[in-house]
Amino acid sequence: MTDYTSSSSSLLISSFRRIPPSAIPATLDCILASSNPSSLFSLLLPFLSQQLTTGAEEESCLDDEQSNFISSYVAALSHLLKKPGLHFQDLQDFVSRVLIPLMKMTHNHNREIADNAMASFLDVVMETNAWTAVEETMVPYFIKSVALTMGTHENKQPQIPALTTFGSFPLFMACHILASILDASVKGKHDLESTSGPVLANGYDLHAFTGNLISDICNVTLQMLSHSPEHRSCAITIFLPRLFESVYSAFQISVRGGGDLSYSGIIIIHTILYYKMI
Prior knowledge:
Layout: H1 6-15, H2 24-32, H3 37-55, H4 64-81, H5 88-106, H6 111-128, H7 131-149, H8 171-196, E1 200-201, E2 204-205, H9 206-225, H10 229-249, E3 253-254, E4 260-261, H11 263-277
């Protein structure tokens, strides 16, 4: 297996303007028959991050060709991240150099691109069981973004220093992303339980991750309900439905500090949230 060359990667990059995202996996698999996925990922990653850095200064609507290019590019990186030979650091690089800048640039005018990029990332996480990367990067970053909109600070900090350079996300987007992560973790937990019994992903306890994320979202939701109308609206329309859905997805969910939060315990939390609303 040979390393992909820089000139070959330039040809592949230019083709992303014409290849639809759905055709990317098959296209890359043909290339990977004779190439190293790690070296190809390393060649592709800097180009997109450079494009995002350049485009971040002018946040405007993308035309169809630009949208297809970015979507296909993200699909390519996501497909490569699922291959053997890619590591935790590669996923962190994808988060800090592509995912966060891309969502920052497109969330106002090209929301579909931001949503699709997040969905691709979560698909990689579920397939590779890389929940540690989510816990150490995405969750603290977006919990902090929500807290900053209320003038508060979170002690938990993302493990990637580069994320601190992006500032905070708008409230709605930060809540939407945290809710997407919760949806994915509940689904991943359910899938693991139905296939392999213990909810362990590469030695990582997804059971605990889901419980800890619910705890984080419950805490921030309680603060939001006593804040501005915008915060209450996001808490009620984004967080509360996901919290209720999580109740029906599992009978018991582990929470930090040991022990279990039973079905009735979660119901109590939801009852508190309900009375805080009214």
